[in-house]
Amino acid sequence: MATNLHNLSEYDPKSVPSAKGMRFGIVVSEWNHHITGPLLEGAQTTLLKHGVSEEDILVMTVPGSFELVFGAAQMAKSGKVDAVIAIGCVIRGDTPHFDYICEGATQGLAELNTTGDVPVIYGLLTCNNLQQAQDRAGGILGNKGDECAVTAIKMVDYKRRIKG
Protein backbone atom coordinates (compact mmCIF):
# COMPACT_ATOMS: atom_id res chain seq x y z
CA MET A 1 0.00 0.00 0.00
CA ALA A 2 1.31 3.44 -0.85
CA THR A 3 2.45 5.40 2.19
CA ASN A 4 0.25 8.34 1.25
CA LEU A 5 -2.73 6.02 1.83
CA HIS A 6 -1.52 4.67 5.18
CA ASN A 7 0.01 6.33 8.23
CA LEU A 8 3.32 4.62 9.04
CA SER A 9 2.75 4.97 12.78
CA GLU A 10 -0.72 3.44 12.85
CA TYR A 11 -0.98 -0.26 13.66
CA ASP A 12 -2.85 -2.58 15.97
CA PRO A 13 -0.63 -2.99 19.05
CA LYS A 14 -2.38 -6.30 19.78
CA SER A 15 -0.95 -7.68 16.53
CA VAL A 16 2.60 -7.20 17.83
CA PRO A 17 4.04 -10.01 19.95
CA SER A 18 5.89 -9.24 23.16
CA ALA A 19 9.45 -8.19 22.42
CA LYS A 20 10.70 -8.87 25.93
CA GLY A 21 14.09 -10.55 25.73
CA MET A 22 14.58 -9.71 22.04
CA ARG A 23 17.76 -7.87 21.02
CA PHE A 24 17.80 -5.32 18.22
CA GLY A 25 20.50 -3.52 16.32
CA ILE A 26 19.85 -0.26 14.55
CA VAL A 27 22.30 0.96 11.93
CA VAL A 28 21.58 4.57 11.10
CA SER A 29 23.05 6.82 8.44
CA GLU A 30 24.56 10.11 9.56
CA TRP A 31 23.73 11.66 6.18
CA ASN A 32 20.44 13.56 6.32
CA HIS A 33 20.52 13.31 10.12
CA HIS A 34 17.63 15.77 10.38
CA ILE A 35 15.56 12.91 8.90
CA THR A 36 17.36 9.80 10.19
CA GLY A 37 17.42 11.16 13.76
CA PRO A 38 13.61 11.21 14.08
CA LEU A 39 13.41 7.81 12.35
CA LEU A 40 15.84 6.39 14.92
CA GLU A 41 13.86 7.93 17.75
CA GLY A 42 10.64 6.42 16.41
CA ALA A 43 12.20 2.95 16.16
CA GLN A 44 13.65 3.10 19.66
CA THR A 45 10.42 4.37 21.22
CA THR A 46 8.37 1.66 19.54
CA LEU A 47 10.78 -1.11 20.58
CA LEU A 48 10.68 0.08 24.19
CA LYS A 49 6.87 0.32 24.06
CA HIS A 50 6.71 -3.38 23.15
CA GLY A 51 8.95 -4.63 25.95
CA VAL A 52 12.51 -4.33 24.69
CA SER A 53 14.91 -3.15 27.37
CA GLU A 54 17.25 -0.25 26.61
CA GLU A 55 20.25 -2.56 27.07
CA ASP A 56 18.91 -4.75 24.26
CA ILE A 57 19.02 -1.96 21.66
CA LEU A 58 22.41 -1.47 20.01
CA VAL A 59 22.68 1.69 17.88
CA MET A 60 25.60 2.26 15.52
CA THR A 61 26.07 4.95 12.89
CA VAL A 62 27.54 4.80 9.41
CA PRO A 63 28.41 7.79 7.20
CA GLY A 64 25.75 7.32 4.53
CA SER A 65 23.00 5.11 3.18
CA PHE A 66 25.31 3.08 0.94
CA GLU A 67 27.25 2.06 4.04
CA LEU A 68 24.11 0.67 5.67
CA VAL A 69 24.79 -2.64 3.93
CA PHE A 70 28.21 -3.14 5.51
CA GLY A 71 27.00 -1.84 8.86
CA ALA A 72 24.00 -4.16 8.88
CA ALA A 73 26.10 -7.13 7.76
CA GLN A 74 28.63 -6.62 10.52
CA MET A 75 25.94 -6.14 13.14
CA ALA A 76 24.12 -9.28 12.02
CA LYS A 77 27.38 -11.28 12.12
CA SER A 78 28.20 -10.00 15.61
CA GLY A 79 25.76 -12.39 17.27
CA LYS A 80 24.62 -9.55 19.54
CA VAL A 81 21.22 -8.98 17.94
CA ASP A 82 18.15 -10.92 16.81
CA ALA A 83 17.31 -8.41 14.04
CA VAL A 84 18.84 -5.34 12.44
CA ILE A 85 16.98 -2.21 11.41
CA ALA A 86 18.77 -0.21 8.69
CA ILE A 87 17.76 3.47 8.72
CA GLY A 88 18.75 5.95 6.05
CA CYS A 89 17.41 8.66 3.78
CA VAL A 90 18.32 9.47 0.20
CA ILE A 91 16.74 12.53 -1.41
CA ARG A 92 16.79 12.87 -5.20
CA GLY A 93 19.18 15.49 -6.52
CA ASP A 94 20.32 16.68 -9.92
CA THR A 95 22.56 13.71 -10.77
CA PRO A 96 22.05 9.93 -11.10
CA HIS A 97 23.79 9.48 -7.72
CA PHE A 98 20.35 8.95 -6.12
CA ASP A 99 19.62 5.97 -8.38
CA TYR A 100 22.97 4.28 -7.73
CA ILE A 101 22.84 4.70 -3.95
CA CYS A 102 19.21 3.57 -3.69
CA GLU A 103 19.73 0.55 -5.93
CA GLY A 104 22.98 -0.51 -4.27
CA ALA A 105 21.65 -0.17 -0.74
CA THR A 106 18.38 -1.89 -1.59
CA GLN A 107 20.06 -4.82 -3.32
CA GLY A 108 22.63 -5.16 -0.56
CA LEU A 109 20.05 -5.19 2.23
CA ALA A 110 17.88 -7.64 0.28
CA GLU A 111 20.88 -9.95 -0.16
CA LEU A 112 21.54 -9.91 3.58
CA ASN A 113 18.00 -11.20 4.09
CA THR A 114 18.35 -14.02 1.59
CA THR A 115 21.81 -15.18 2.67
CA GLY A 116 21.87 -14.38 6.37
CA ASP A 117 20.19 -15.75 9.45
CA VAL A 118 19.28 -12.40 11.04
CA PRO A 119 16.36 -10.39 9.63
CA VAL A 120 17.41 -7.01 8.24
CA ILE A 121 14.62 -4.46 8.13
CA TYR A 122 14.55 -1.92 5.31
CA GLY A 123 14.23 1.56 6.77
CA LEU A 124 15.69 3.50 3.87
CA LEU A 125 13.59 6.44 2.75
CA THR A 126 14.02 7.11 -0.97
CA CYS A 127 12.31 10.43 -1.56
CA ASN A 128 11.99 12.87 -4.41
CA ASN A 129 12.25 15.88 -2.12
CA LEU A 130 12.81 16.97 1.46
CA GLN A 131 9.07 17.35 2.16
CA GLN A 132 8.43 13.70 1.34
CA ALA A 133 11.18 12.69 3.77
CA GLN A 134 9.84 14.94 6.54
CA ASP A 135 6.33 13.59 6.01
CA ARG A 136 7.67 10.06 6.67
CA ALA A 137 9.95 10.97 9.60
CA GLY A 138 7.26 11.96 12.07
CA GLY A 139 5.27 14.23 9.77
CA ILE A 140 1.79 13.87 8.36
CA LEU A 141 2.42 10.30 7.17
CA GLY A 142 3.76 9.06 10.50
CA ASN A 143 7.21 7.70 11.23
CA LYS A 144 8.84 4.95 9.18
CA GLY A 145 10.96 4.16 12.27
CA ASP A 146 7.81 3.01 14.09
CA GLU A 147 6.91 0.72 11.21
CA CYS A 148 10.44 -0.70 11.05
CA ALA A 149 10.44 -1.52 14.77
CA VAL A 150 7.11 -3.34 14.52
CA THR A 151 8.38 -5.25 11.48
CA ALA A 152 11.59 -6.20 13.31
CA ILE A 153 9.66 -7.55 16.30
CA LYS A 154 7.37 -9.56 14.05
CA MET A 155 10.29 -11.00 12.08
CA VAL A 156 12.15 -12.12 15.22
CA ASP A 157 8.93 -13.74 16.40
CA TYR A 158 8.48 -15.35 12.98
CA LYS A 159 12.00 -16.78 13.05
CA ARG A 160 11.50 -18.16 16.55
CA ARG A 161 8.19 -19.78 15.60
CA ILE A 162 9.46 -21.31 12.34
CA LYS A 163 12.50 -22.78 14.07
CA GLY A 164 10.26 -24.20 16.77
Q: Within the largest sheet, what's the order of strands?
A: 2-1-3-4
The overall pLDDT, averaged over residues, is 94
CATH homologous group name: Lumazine/riboflavin synthase
- What CATH calls the topology is Rossmann fold
Alpha carbon gap, first and last residue: 31 Å
Please state roughly what percent of the residues sit in beta strands, choosing from under 5%, 5-15%, 15-25%, 25-35%, 35-45% or over 45%: 15-25%
Q: Shape, please?
A: globular
Percent of residues in helices comes to: 40-55%
Low-confidence stretches: none
Number of domains: 1
Topology, number of strands: 6
Explain this structure.
- The chain has helices at 33-49, 68-77, 97-115, 130-136, 144-163, and strands at residues 24-29, 57-62, 83-91, 120-127, 137-139, 142-143.
- The strands form two sheets. A four-stranded parallel β-sheet has the order 2-1-3-4, with helices on both faces. It has a two-stranded antiparallel ribbon with strand order 5-6.
- The protein has 164 residues and is of the alpha/beta class.
- It starts with 23 loop residues before the first strand and ends with a helix.
- α1 crosses α5 and α2 packs parallel to α3 (97-115).
- β1 (24-29), α1 (33-49) and β2 (57-62) form a beta-alpha-beta unit.
- The protein has a single domain, classed as Lumazine/riboflavin synthase (Rossmann fold).
